[in-house]
Amino acid sequence: MINFFSQAGSSFGHLDKSTVVIPSPSFEGYWASLELQPDLFAPQRFSVGIVTQAPNDRIHYHLLSEFKKFECVYSSRFAKDAIGELLRHAEEVLRLATKEKTPIDKVDFGSANLYLSAPAFTAGESAETVISRLYSDVVVMEPHANEKRPREFNTIDTPGVRDLVNEALKRIALNDYEKIVLDSQDGFVKVDADNRPHHFDVNLRTRSAYGSVVSAVYKNIQNVEMNLLRANLDLSTLAKIDSVSDKGVFMMLPQRTELDAKDWLRLENIVDAQSWKLEKDGFRVVALDTAHSLAEEIYEWAKPTI
After folding, report:
1. Which of 29, 88, 204, 246 is the most exposed place for a label (fewest CB within 10 A)?
2. Residue 204 sits in which domain range?
3. Which positions of the chain have pLDDT values less than 70?
4. pLDDT by residue (tens digit) across 85-115?
């Protein structure tokens, strides 16, 4: 009898040179869709966002920002503004969950209209790549590419903006980077007072200065205003506790070409109004549309107090 197994080396050994090691995906984790049920008395529900998370990492998400298709489905039965309010609430809950590294299956929106689907395994080149692919496949309420839309717009939340700015700042500040950016990945300062901890969303700190990088890369003006108001409150309170007078807010703006004239004017007005108030309160305020330019401004601001 011929032993085929003993001949395998001689028969297929020439293929060893052609073998290729397939690298493991850079991102492995879980994903869930954000489900919206506008009318609790009707069974219809819609996927309006994608959430992903790698083990022991923060949440990444992409939510629907245009609601044209809901107008077609519900007409006057359910106001488009109500959809917007629910999505803004979802954004706020997910923003907090991102900072606290809450597991996907523990995120609670406190509303019967919103919930996450059961998490499922996913993998890909990066969290952003996975989100983009899943969002395209799952969120059918996104307007079609052939529908009239001003321009493509990609929201970047504050943790995402901080990641971009930190990468640029590492290249610019070199050894000074660790003297400017907080070690905490989430960018929180914890202060124990009144027998309980208080957390401040402040990600820049030197010997005598506090600062925050925030995102204004939203179409929703309420999100921009909320980020600036939160930065004002947290920085003002923390600076008062530590008797620090040097405070900075560094805003990432969207590219001008990503917004139509009307949306850009609304964003410009709210940024100008809030910046003026912050400057009157003693803040240094910088608003730019690239991570590199923001990082340069941060380093120039921080150097005298390192």
Report:
1. 88
2. 158-305
3. 1-25, 75-80, 144-152, 183-196
4. 888 899 899 989 998 899 999 999 999 999 9
* Environment class of 204 (CB within 10 Å of its CB; exposed 0-12, middle 13-18, buried 19+): buried
143 in any annotated domain: no
Nearest to 276 by CA among 246, 242, 249, 305: 249
- Rounded Cα gap, residues 253 and 185, in angstroms: 22
248 part of a folded domain: yes
Q: Is 115 in the same domain as 168?
A: no
Type and span of the H or E element at 124: strand 120-124
Give dist(CA 231, CA 247) in Å, integer: 10
The DSSP H or E segment spanning 168 is helix 158-173
Judge if 166 and 235 occupy the same domain.
yes
Q: Tell me phi and psi for residue 71, to 5 degrees.
A: -65, -40
Q: Are 255 and 290 in contact (CB under 8 A)?
A: no
The C-alpha atoms of residue 14 and residue 3 are separated, in whole angstroms, by 19
pTM listed for this prediction: 0.51
Q: How many domains does the chain have?
A: 2
**What is the C-alpha separation between 90 and 220, in angstroms, rounded?**
13
Task: Give the residue from 138, 166, 199 where a domain finishes.
Answer: 138
Rounded CA gap, 95 and 106, in Å? 14
